[in-house]
Write a structure and sequence with these properties.
By secondary structure, the protein is α/β, with parallel strands linked by helices. It has 16 helices and 33 strands. It is globular and about 80 Å long. Keywords: Glycosidase, Hydrolase, Signal.
């Protein structure tokens, strides 16, 4: 075990035979008669995750014991044990499992064991025996020898927001969504910043500036009033209920990641009162489903025009750039005052905040005090529901680059500050790799932007491109293995609040990676709305908006396409509606059913006590007949299933359902 049982692998490092590969290699007919006490553990019958059928307390308190359920083929094994590592004593412990019941079809046995209650974090795996044969099972897969990484988590006292688990996010870059108030539009030459005069471009026009190097000075007039006026599209037409806004605070650029004043909404977007109205309207259930609001917190750095820094003497006070006697001088890290200082990726316009030691003035200003930025917007009259933390791994002291003990201390303090105002608020960190160091202890983030475990593998499998637009193609078996490996990086309640997007303001548009093929967007939407995590739609991705690298990925929304008459928008509405209807698609178990590299087919199950759902996806350009082994989901022969998209009905026969799926499309088979 890597020291204390924590994960040590990345998405491509899981070399053990995964359950997906085992299932793909298995037959599609009922194999129950093959299972017996014959010194051979039948891997194809093994299953456990921390879905509601297999873990009775996925978010336990320190006082709750956790009963775990393991599935095997009926009569196949002679014994099973839970082996768990307890961080309290640094030791492994064993719990003997007992036979508990059969599944409804009589094909499977359920074995159970209970990990005793305590407040310490634990990691567990299963040892499964059939006479002299032994198999091991953990989140990374099934192995014949004991694994050294990839265990399941038990993190007592760690609760992630249920509204995030059950919601759908719509991400908006405010200047490019909708112009609701022409009176606050930025005009040509209204002001100059860093040698760039503002440019007002016509809606739908070029995002590139007329002057080289001045793309951040291009404005289109999108604002908070525009978002408010289009809530009907977001909440009703699409069915999304969480609005994530890119930065809205005062800043001289269109992207606002160089904050000038955390306490003031940028005038081009409206006023603080406009923001309050928008939040109240999102929260309202009078205009569609009750919604939630996540704001972008840019706390690693400020802009160089912030009062604390004031590089251009815009404020009457004396900033750190202006005087070493400034009250804010120690809030930044200067190598040689005034022109050499730590910045975000060395960018001079984004001077990096120096968080100092616990209790420092910077920590108090950002999150620690009652009047801090973080707490102000969580409290009335705003009452936002969460923060997305920009460049979160870089927050640090002394100009350091973060991802160290000080960064984790800052994040733990920030979590305490957030939860002290609203225990149900979301903390969503930006990290592009394995975010486990910030999530697995339950004391920092609730989840992260899932570039590593969703956006990148989905892009490579469906489009043959990485999220930057470079060539990178993977077969479905590798796609499935990648997904299993990245799920294993996180506790289940973190997996369920990971932000799963096809694109963002920082990468090329999915529609462009797909070569403009809207059917690839269809397929991506099928997967996005049925996979583990919180679906996140970057505005326009629902209709296949085109766009290359920044700033081209921030084009204006085409309101001729943003309508239910658009086939992709209509499919988005249908798929979100299906997700909202079935809890199994949100918090149910995930089981791989089929990987077919030759025909580019993928099938998996999502299930709980109420519903069994098989999803079949076709990544080929032509239609295929897919035989899905639904016996793995305990679907009985003769029972009926319905494709929730087409409405077609099927009957389970020989343990399977055979369905024809169009190229770059899917089927969602439920019972």
């Amino acid at each position: 075990m890597s020291g204390n049982g924590k994960k040590a692998h990345g998405p491509r490092a899981v070399l053990w035979l995964s359950l997906g590969a085992a299932l793909a290699a298995g037959c599609a007919s009922l194999p129950a008669q093959a299972a017996s006490n014959d010194n051979n553990v039948e891997w194809n019958g093994l299953f456990h995750d921390q879905g509601p059928l297999f873990d009775d307390h996925p978010e336990p308190t320190a006082a709750q014991a956790v009963t775990l359920t393991l599935r095997t083929f009926k009569g196949d094994i002679t014994s099973a044990n839970i082996k768990y590592y307890d961080s309290a004593d640094g030791q492994f412990h064993w719990v003997a499992m007992h036979w508990a019941s059969n599944d409804p079809t009589g094909v499977f046995d359920y074995w159970q064991g209970t990990v005793p209650a305590s407040g310490s974090e634990k990691y567990y795996r299963f040892q499964i025996n059939d006479g002299s044969a032994t198999a091991w099972y953990n989140a990374a897969g099934i192995t014949s020898s004991e694994p050294s990484a990839g265990d399941f988590f038990i993190v007592p006292g760690f609760k992630t927001p249920d509204w995030m688990k059950n919601g759908v996010i719509y991400q908006i870059f405010p200047d490019r969504f909708y112009n609701g108030d022409a009176g606050n539009d930025v005009s040509n030459g209204q002001y100059t910043y860093a040698g760039c005069a503002t440019e007002k471009h016509a809606w739908g026009g070029s995002v590139t500036s007329n002057v080289g190097g001045c793309n951040s000075a291009v404005f289109f007039g999108g604002d908070l009033a525009g978002v408010d006026q289009k809530l009907g599209y977001i909440k009703n037409t699409l069915g999304a209920n969480i609005v994530y806004l890119n930065p809205v605070f005062r800043s001289p650029t269109n992207h606002k990641y160089d904050t000038e004043d955390y306490m003031t909404v940028d005038p081009a977007f409206g006023s603080n009162a406009t923001l309050q109205t928008l939040i109240a309207d999102i929260h309202s259930s009078a205009n569609g489903p009750k919604g939630y609001v996540i704001l972008d917190g840019v706390f690693n750095h400020t802009g160089d025009t912030h009062q604390w820094f004031d590089r251009y003497n815009w404020w009457s006070t004396s900033g750190a750039y202006e005087s070493q006697s400034s009250q804010w001088y120690g809030w930044y890290t200067f190598q040689s005052w005034p022109n050499s200082y730590s910045g975000f990726f060395g960018i001079a316009s984004m001077p990096k905040l120096d968080y100092g030691a616990s209790g420092s003035a910077v920590r108090n200003a950002i999150y620690g005090s009652a009047g801090s930025v973080v707490k102000t917007y969580l409290k009335p009259p705003y009452s936002i529901d969460g923060w997305r933390l920009d460049a979160a791994q870089y927050l640090d002291a002394g100009g350091n680059d973060g991802s160290d003990a000080t960064n984790h201390q800052i994040m733990a303090e920030l979590r305490s500050a957030v939860k002290s105002v609203n225990a149900n608020a979301e903390i969503l960190g930006e990290f592009w790799g394995n975010a486990g160091p910030w999530t697995d202890g339950g004391d920092q983030w609730d989840g992260a932007m899932n570039y590593d475990g969703f956006m990148q593998p989905v892009s490579e499998w469906i489009t043959g491109k990485d999220y930057g637009g470079g060539s990178a193609s993977i077969p479905v078996s590798q796609f499935d293995s990648w997904l299993r490996g990245t799920r294993a990086n996180y506790p289940t309640n973190v997996q369920q609040t990971m932000s799963n997007a096809l694109g963002s303001h920082d990468v090329t548009r999915f529609g462009t990676r797909a070569g403009g093929d809207i059917w690839k967007t269809y397929l991506a939407l099928f997967f996005q709305m049925t996979y583990v995590g919180t679906p996140t739609i970057y505005y326009g991705d629902e209709y296949g908006m085109q766009g290359g690298a920044d700033p081209d990925n921030r084009r204006t929304f085409d309101w001729n396409a943003g309508t239910i008459t658009n086939s992709a928008v209509a499919l988005t509405q249908k798929l979100i509606g299906i997700r909202n209807q079935y809890a199994a698609l949100r918090t149910g178990s995930f089981m791989t059913l089929l990987t077919d590299d030759a025909n580019k087919l993928y099938a998996y199950g999502r299930f709980d006590a109420s519903h069994r759902i098989a999803v079949a996806l076709n990544n080929d350009s032509v239609s295929h007949s897919v035989t899905v082994p639904v016996w793995q989901l305990s679907m009985a022969n003769g029972s009926g299933v319905t494709d929730l998209v087409s409405g077609s009905h099927y009957t389970v026969s020989g343990g399977s359902v055979t369905v024809t799926v169009n190229g770059h499309y899917g089927a969602i088979l439920a019972q």
